[in-house]
Amino acid sequence: ALSNLDVQMARRSALGVLVSQVTLGAIVAIACFLVRDAHAGASALIGAGIGVAATSLMAFAMLRPGEGASLGRVALGFFGGWLVKVGFTVAVLVVALRSQKVEGVPMLIGYFATFAGYFFGAVRASGQAEKQEMGRSG
Question: CB within 10 Å: which end of the chain, N or C, has fewer?
Fold first, then answer.
């Protein structure tokens, strides 16, 4: 069963991933704005927003069981969250790409920037978790 500490660490990790995604998405959107124009910047921001929203949905589904949840329930939350994330992402990307108001390339660049944010946030969170674990055992 999940302990309160496990849930707190997972929430902190998820928040770190989201902050990294928002930061990189904003940087890419600003770069698109400076290199091209406001329309490209807005499209990149939409792409980043899709990535952040999808990750938020998955994190919510994964963390919903909370303290005391069995490993089976946690696994179900993970896979359910992943399915929601993929379904949401595909649906919103299709709608955005069909829109005449969104530039496809900057939007996809903004969306893919959130992958890097996911990676950096997860690496940073795992380093923090290792420090906490060493602090408890040492």
Answer: C
